[in-house]
Amino acid sequence: MDKIKNIVIGGAWPYANSDLHLGHIAGLISGDVLARYHRQRGNNVVYVSGTDCHGTPITERAKKEKKTPKEIAEYYDNRDRETLKKFNFSYDLYTNTDTDFHRKETMNMFKKMYENGYIYEKIEPQAYCEHCHKFLSDREIKIVCPKCGTETKADQCDGCQYVPTVEDTKDGICLECGSKTVLRDNKNLYLALSKFQKEIEEHTKKSNTIWRINAKNETDKYLKQGLVDRAVTRDLDWGVDIPLPNYEDKKMYVWIDAVLGYVTATKKWCEDHNKNWEEYWKEGNNNLIYMVHGKDNIVFHSIIFNALLLAMKEDYHLVDVIVSSEYLNINDEKISKSKGNGIPAIELVDKYQSDSLRFHLINNGPEKKDSNFTIDSLIATNNGELLNKFGNLVNRTLKFKGIDELPKGILDEQVKSKIEETYDKVADAIEHLEFKEASDIAMQLVEYANKYYDDKQPWVQKKENIEDFNNTIYTCSVIIANLANIFEPFMPDASSKIRVYLGLNEPNWEFIKPKENIKLENIEPLFTRID
Ligand SMILES: [Zn+2]
Ligand SMILES: [Zn+2]
Predict the structure, then answer these.
(1) How do residues 174-184 score in pLDDT, each as one tens digit?
(2) How far is CA 239 from CA 63, 66, 404, in A?
(3) What's the confidence (pLDDT) of residue 340?
(4) How many angstroms separate the alpha carbon of residue 397 from the centre of ligand 2?
(5) What is the average pLDDT score of the chain?
(6) How far is it, in rounded angstroms, from Cα 197 to Cα 219?
(7) Ligand 2 centre and the CA of 156: distance in Å?
(8) Is residue 334 part of a domain?
(9) 143 in a structural domain
(10) Which residue range is the domain that position 490 belongs to?
């Protein structure tokens, strides 16, 4: 037996400004597969996430809807929790960034980085509105692009993608009041990211062996350009306070408190469960840290988060594995707000089985390249694969006419080897982040079982040789019992039904047998046909 690992799995924190759509779920589901799998292996797992309540997308939405940012954040936090629950995400703690605990812990960590000299003050000119009496962020200013002449927000030109400089924001227009902007000296705190260039380079080289190619490329690109210090404060009234004097009118940049949330959430969960959070986050505990998110979030986790951990100088273990998915398209279109094609995931999971959606998104998801979702493809997976193959195997084995108790039989040794081989192969694929392949290998055991059943012809055996019949049904039920383990990371509902049917204990990752003489009652189909 391998030494027990202490594993953190961090699922990306959804922004509390809109409903989760299927693309979010497709990106996050890998985290749940990893969490369930590692628990089955007997590792200590803490799987955390939460709703990101801060940041300008939320304040902008609040302004538009004439609500407070808190009201907006609370509404979407509740929606996210409901959605993730219906998809059976097994977070140990799903929290949000608006809790007192998170604020307090984040401020403490920020203070440590400042005391260690990795956060420093810098004074520089910034766009200011004399009418609104405030400094403006790039998104709050309208300018005429100096490159192409397009009228655009100052974060990036809509016409030519040019990123305006501070000078370009002089004589812009304040989007709130329409006044002309001026440049004025403003002070902000900066993270000395450049000081961590070497350490992060070395860590990346050592740990990126199983990362997805997009994570390797994106991280290498930033490291090659050379890491640049980044502002960590901004002029907002919604967010985590800065724990230093003379910064009362500023808040932390949202990306800093969001990534530190993985640590604060672990602390909170450990506090509530009498565990030591340092075993998960500090060096020397056989640690393994995964971060699961979409491709637009890679460097926040592979570079910035690691730099923050290093800046505390407290022997933190750095992020080991970046699990970064590509994008999911819907009906061959990119999901976008303007197209309105990002169907809320909660609507789909209310209509279709959570297991079917989960399996489909894992088996056809945006693992290494963008993938496409259509209702027809979901139906093909549900009816063709899950119902016709897996559901049918369970049904025709455990609901055989005239049999109401699992017969005693002898297990076919060849089948046993096939099952054990499947455990190893699925485990290997999951540990290499090949979730699609893992789900394919699991389905191959279903196909193998169906072929075994057809070859043995139990409906003939039952009339001609009852012992042969018993052996066939018993052997197939052993396969089904093990499928409950093997499919647990992908389809927890189906697995839990089988555990009841066959009297099985909690899922693990080793060869198991059904409970002897178990009554075969109330066997329901695992999947419902979609028409
Ligand atoms: Zn103004
Ligand atoms: Zn332009």
Answers:
(1) 999 999 999 99
(2) 16, 18, 61
(3) 66
(4) 66
(5) 95
(6) 12
(7) 8
(8) no
(9) yes
(10) 375-501
Instruction: Examine the domain organization and report whether 401 and 478 are in the same domain.
Output: yes
Domain count along the chain = 3
Per the CB < 8 A criterion, the answer to whether 378 and 328 are in contact is no
The ligand whose atoms approach the alpha carbon of 156 most closely is 2
Say which DSSP state 52 is in: B
Gap from CA of 392 to ligand 2 centroid (Å)? 59
Centroid of ligand 2 to alpha carbon of 163 (angstroms)? 8
Ligand 1 midpoint to CA 74 (Å): 28
The verdict on pTM exceeding 0.85 is: yes
**Residue 82: inside a domain, yes or no?**
yes
For residue range 303-316, what is the model confidence (pLDDT) as tens digits?
999 999 999 999 99
Query: CA neighbours within 13 Å on the CB side: how many for 111?
Result: 12
- What are the phi and psi torsion angles at 49 (to 5°)? -170, -170
Residues with CB under 5 A from ligand 1 (ion): 129, 131-132, 174, 176-177, 179
- For residues 379 and 492, state if they share a domain: yes
Whether 157 and 279 map to the same domain: the answer is no
What DSSP string describes 114-150? Answer: HHTTSEEEEEEEEEEETTTTEE--GGGEEEE-TTT--
The CA 136 to ligand 2 mean position distance, Å, reads 20
From the CA of 448, how far away is ligand 1's center (Å)?
Answer: 69
